[in-house]
Structures are given as structure tokens and as C-alpha cells.
Amino acid sequence: MIRSVLSRVAFGILAAAALAPYVAAAQHPDFSGLWFPAGRTQDPQRAPYTPAAQAAADEYAKAFTLDDDPGRYCIWPGMPRAVWGAPFTVEIQQRPQDFTIFWEGYGMYRKIYMADHNPPQPILPSAMGHSVAHWDGDALVVETSNLKPYPYMTRLATSSDAHVVERLHLEEREVNGRKGKYLVNEVVLTDPKVYTTPIKITATLQQRTDLQLLEYTCTDTLWDDYLSERGLTLPDIDSFPAPGAAR
Amino acid sequence: MTFRLLLATALVLTLPAAAHHSFAIYDMDENIVFDGVVETLKMRNPHMALTLTVTQDDGTTGTINFAEGAPANMIVRMGLNPADIAPGMHIKAIGAPRRDDPHTYFLKAIILPDGRKYSVIN
Q1: A94-108 pLDDT, tens per residue?
Q2: Which residue of A has its CA nearest to B72?
Q3: Does the predicted interface ipTM exceed a cut of 0.85?
Q4: pLDDT range class, residue B122, cuts 50, 70, 90
Q5: How many A-B residue pairs are in contact by the CB < 8 A criterion?
Q6: Domains of chain A, CATH where assigned
């Protein structure tokens, strides 16, 4: 009898411990799932360049054509540009300790660590930077720094000093008579070397459970171009006879 | 040009807002329809590509090079089944020629034999 009671108590404690992270997570909004870009606004619309950045932008405009674009060479747009993104699916995975965001476009991914779960220290500057977040009510506040320079003056350039603060929240909206869930991200980009004032961007994702995250390998064309320059031809591997096929 | 059939119907096309490079090298005002057989197909990102074998009135054939079009992911999401445009399939393709190379085209739309049309610029 006593053994039975003890085992039930032990089971209850174990079950509670196992469920604790999920109970805690359930207290916060759930951003997980599949999303698709649904527009953005920017204020100010025209980049408030510092004198040095304006000079660089003027030189850039003279030297670089629209085709001299890093995207063509599969350079990740990174933060904060990934937030409004290309017209491809975005998947968000949410856990109590972190968020993982996958962007189909450019095959980008990003980690956001929760401040109250012992986040790791940044190691190398990167396109997505180092993001640490906390909940403020139903809003997730994310601070990102440790970004590597993105000196492409026609693409909202950022320096190593860039700092991005995001405030994300869910909204239910009715658009064209259809109700849907939207994830609204209010972004503030501060980069004193490049911009004289912060730039505010509001980017929205629409939940799209009908989509799936497809593969997006950006470098195939570049590889083809290289092979062509080298005069190399890859074997037509799909033309190989299947085992047992008539010869 | 014998291969060309000017498209009579108006198309409502806008370039993707997130296009990662300019399409100014193409004369996007042109909508030239080619009727032919898919020779090669690259369903890839950021731009799909295909070549089309087109038969002229005198029976000789030529190859039309659609060097780039929409991202493969975007066009399959529109509903195009890649099997419908596999090499050997008969399709129509609407192109905009490169300004410096009139034999190379941007692939603006694909029309299947049953009339289904997929505009690769949205």
C-alpha cells in the first residue's frame, strides 16, 4: 500500500517535471508554424545617412549597377533585412529556451535565445548576429547585435555597430473577408555610423498552414557558370540504366 | 523572326518585389510566344531555366534559350507540376528578349497544351 502511494507520488513528481517546460511555454503566445511575408512599412522611407554613409552611397550608386547585387551571389541578406524577406515560406520553431527560424529564401536560418535560459555567448560576427530575447507580456522583445558588415548601400546597409530591437506579437485580422493569424514585428534599427536616426520597420507575416518549407539552393547557377567557364560537363547520372532494365 | 508570334492578349505582369537583381537587361515590354518542345529544364532557384526546340515553317528547328525565369519554388507553389514541362513535353512559353542578345529570353510565362497558364512574373 505504502509502496503504491509512494510510486504514485514519484510518478506525479516526474510527470510534473517533464511537463513543466511545456506548461511554462503555454503561458506565452505560440509563434511556431509556417508563415509567409505579408508586407512592411518603413519610417523614414529614405535612409537618413550620416555624411560618411551618404558619400559611400553616392560612390556605390556610380560604381555598382542593379545587377551587381549580393543576392545574385547568394549572400544572405541577414538581419534586419531577413525580417521582411523574400516571397518564400518562413518556419518558426519555438521552445522555452529558444526560437529557430528557417527562411526558405536563401536557405537562411536564425537562432533567438531566451535570456532566462542561460544563452550562449556570441562567437563570430554573422549575417544574423546574436539574438537574445525576453517576453514583455504577450510580446517577444529580441535584441540583436554582433552583426557582420553588410556594405551594400542599396539594401539597407549595416555596420558592425548595428543594433536591432524587435517586438513581435500576434494579431487576428480579417483580410478580404478571411480571418487569419498574423505575426507583427516592429523593428528598430540603430546604426550611428550609417544612420543619423533609428529606422523603424514594421514587417508582418501571415500564418499559412497550407504551405511547406521547400529547399532553396541558391548556388546552382553559380556552379553551372563555373563549370561552363572551365569547360567541364557533369555526367548525366539520371541516364544511367536502372538495375534489371532492358539493355 | 520566324520563331516569334506576337502575343495578342494583354498580360498583367509585375516583377517580384524581392527580385534579387535587375531585369533591365531584358525588354520586359515584349511578350513573345514560342511553341515548341522542352529540350532542357532546370527547376532551380533563384531562377528556373529551360530551352525549347522550335520548328520553323520550313521544317528546320532552332533552340530558344530561356536563361532565367521565376524561382522554381515560386512556380510550383502556383500549381505547376514539373512533370508537365519535363524534357520532351510540348508547351508554349512567353519570353522577353535580352536587349544585348535577342536569342536569350527571360521566361515570363508557361502555357500547357490544355490551356493552363503559369505567369512566372507575379
Answers
A1: 999 999 999 999 999
A2: A216
A3: no
A4: very low
A5: 49
A6: 26-230 (2.40.128.20)
Shortest CA distance to B119 belongs to which of B87, B98, B94, B85?
Answer: B94
Interface of B with A (CB under 8 A): 16-18, 20-22, 24-25, 42, 44-47, 71, 73-74, 76-77
Can you spell out the DSSP letters for A194-230?
Answer: TBSS-EEEEEEEEE-TT-------TTHHHHHHHHHHH
Q: Which residue of A has its CA nearest to B49?
A: A221
pLDDT at A11 (0 to 100): 52
Would you kindly state where each structural domain of chain B is located, as residue ranges? Answer: 24-115
In chain A, % of residues over pLDDT 70 = 89
Write out B51-92 in H/E/C secondary structure. Answer: EEEEECCCCCEEEEEEEECCCHHHHHHCCCCHHHHCCCCEEE
Cα gap B71→B47, rounded to integer Å = 4
Domain B24-115 CATH (choose: 1.20.1740, 3.30.70, 2.40.50, 1.10.1300): 2.40.50
- The answer to whether the CB atoms of B17 and A87 lie below 8 A apart is yes
Say if A170 is an interface residue toward chain B (CB within 8 Å): no
Question: Are A164 and A187 spatial neighbours (Cβ–Cβ below 8 Å)?
Answer: yes
- How many Cα atoms are found within 13 Å in the side-chain-facing hemisphere of A120? 9
A129 reaches B (C-beta below 8 A): no
CB < 8 Å to B44, chain A: 217, 220-221
B119 Cβ contact list (under 8 Å, min separation 6): B11, B13, B108, B109
Is residue A203 within 8 A of residue A79, CB to CB? The reply is no
What would the pLDDT profile of A180-237 be if each residue is shown by its tens digit? Answer: 999 999 999 999 999 999 999 999 999 999 999 999 998 998 999 999 999 999 999 9
pTM over 0.95: no
